[in-house]
Specification:
The protein starts with 8 loop residues before the first helix and ends in a 15-residue tail after the last helix. Helix 2 runs antiparallel to helix 3. Strand 2, helix 3 and strand 3 form a beta-alpha-beta unit. By secondary structure, it is α+β, with helices and mostly antiparallel strands. The radius of gyration is 14 Å and the shape is globular. The protein has 5 helices and 4 strands; from the N terminus they run H-H-E-E-H-E-H-E-H.
Length: 131
């Protein structure tokens, strides 16, 4: 990951350092894809004040299992990253303009099967769901 941003670089370094733990959490909670977006990728990120915005897409599971997966993943990511995390589920972004902005700027952290095969591509700049 080679994201060029001012103070945001510190959060990117933390994410890079913790990619193994993030992958394990994603596998445990049946995540198909996890992306970072928002201020964590921009110059306006303020460590200690800004949260880390993550977009999650879970694999198939019963509606009864999804809350446990969501809150379990959220708690684990907060512990791993040592920061407040705003975990947004794919499909929860109803505002078209917000959704388009997130889709345009997000960077993949975890991609399910690709990561289980050992391919390392955390938050490759410019990579999006349409790639």
């Amino acid at each position: 990951m080679n994201v060029r941003s001012g103070s945001g670089l510190s959060v990117i370094a933390v994410i890079e350092d913790e990619m193994d733990a993030i992958r394990r959490a994603c596998e445990r909670f049946r995540v198909v894809r996890l992306d970072v977006f928002g201020s964590a990728l921009r110059d306006d990120f303020e460590p200690g004040r800004s949260d880390i915005d993550l977009l999650v897409d879970f694999g198939p599971m019963s509606p009864y299992d999804k809350p446990d997966a969501y809150f379990g993943l959220l708690d684990e990511l907060r512990a791993i990253l040592g920061a407040e995390v705003d975990l947004v589920m794919v499909g929860a972004l109803k505002n078209r303009y917000v959704r388009d902005d997130v889709d345009r700027t997000k960077q993949q952290l975890y991609g399910g099967a690709d990561d289980r095969q050992g391919q390392d591509h955390p938050a490759t700049p410019g990579r999006s769901s349409s790639d």
